[in-house]
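Data availability excerpt. The first of two example chains:
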Amino acid sequence: MKKVAVLTSGGDAPGLNACIRAIVRTAYYYEISVIGIKRGYRGLIEKDYCELDPRRVGGIINKGGTILHSSREPRFKHFEFRKKAFETLKELQVDALLVIGGNGSISAANIFAKEFPINVIGIPKTIDNDLYGTDYTIGFDTAVNNAVDAVDKIRDTTISHERIFVVEVMGRDSGFIALDVGIATGADITLIPEYPFPIHIVIQKLIDSYKKGKTFSIIILAEGVAKAQELASVLEQKLKDYAIGGIRYSVLGHIQRGGSPTAFDRNIASRFGAFAVERFLHGEKNFMVAYEKGEIKTKPLEIPFGKVKKPDLEVFELTKKLTI
């Protein structure tokens, strides 16, 4: 009987449980047993694991987070600990390791696969959606919807007090979340690291809007550009001569990561998990699941290594066209 192991590594993302569930149930459909590695790569090093079966993953498709827990494991950067991880898999007689992760996790998986005779399969997840080689990563849609819901609420206060509000969203050094949130909420300005927007242009745009009679503004700020508090402070100083109802800011933070995954994330996570198991059965090795132009496919595991994924410039330009 074939056996696979699955782990979730790095930051959590809505849809992880749906993916784990799909892996386990697809595997058992094909009479493959599944080992769940706890706390990501740490579990491989410390031999922390459990057996997973269809009943164990019942009722988790709508749950945020991950039942296997997750961690960022710096020890896995060192060969001696990767060797320990391989010895754990060898002891368990595992035929393939499925890693559900983002940039750091998939890069580590690629190194691991090159060093040891183990079939490693990467499944893309990160709310940042910045993993090169795939159009979509598990968790992104839910994170965007969480942020949109928060901004819609903030807008009510912004309009009531005729303020300018800076809303900082997550994304590390990537602007995918900010860009989608900016369009979906009708933000007046969207700032992302990939396409810099000089501060004097931001200030002039706000002044022009004020002169045209616009009494409030929403600025969506990707965390990779600046801190919301810092930007709000600069704007307050530069706009002090205008009768604006004040500058406020909000950092949405980790609420974007949590909560029940959207229908899209549940579906794509389920499809990714099932696809990974089936391609393993077909004999494919050391690959990453990818979503490209509406199709799920496999790509070499090293595809994302050292590469940077950027938002579409045309989409960024759209944010400016829609805020005339």
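And the second chain:
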Amino acid sequence: MILTSASPAAVLLGTTAATAYTVAAALAARLPERAAKTTLWLAWLVHGAALALAMLQPAPRFGFAPALSVTAWLVLTVYAVERQLFPQLHARWALAALGALAVLLALLFPGRPLHVSASAWLPLHLALGIAAYGLFAAAVVHAALMTRAEKRLRQAEDPNSGMPLLTLERLTFRFVTAGFVLLSATLAAGLLFSEVLYGRAWRWDHKAVFSLLSWFTFAALLLGRRRWGWRGRSAVRVLYAGAALLLLAYVGSRFALEVVLGRAP
């Protein structure tokens, strides 16, 4: 399904958000600080309105692109909160570019209507899963910033040019821990209540396999940090591996079904 299946209001909100994100990303270095912040938060607000409109439709749609769009919006929400606590956090242009790409993908591929036979609890189950996506995505962003901060230290650059390395590391693992809790709840609900949620028994498909592989990867990361003090590049590599497996679990499988194969999951 491509752009023509989206409502005119969704197209208007989506294109407005994508344009504002693009301006914030492309002109981040040229716009005054106040104008750049205003443009980014305008994009964030319109993006949120587009997501709310999509979920409140009589027949809401969902798929890999809406999942990425919600994830990007959650990451930007985390950034908005953290920016108030840590003014030295600088990731605006990269997150704005991520937001623009996610919004455009959601317009091009709005997904398929949710199954009418599914339980009323299905939106909550999906919300838990997407929240886990958002928290792990925030952890990945912080891990990238942590890698950049470590590189600055190795090159003897100004240590006050960004957030302290230990602060970034602590925030990264807080997001990993919170995401792991939500991912565990999502998998447990899917395993125990699959027939209630989806009207069918649990299936060992690609989504289930990749989800469990990501769960074990994140569990190993948290255990390794607690018992053996994993940190730095080794911990970041394990985090990236778990995030990649989790991305393949839902977004990857839905992309293959919706775009490559062109059929409903």
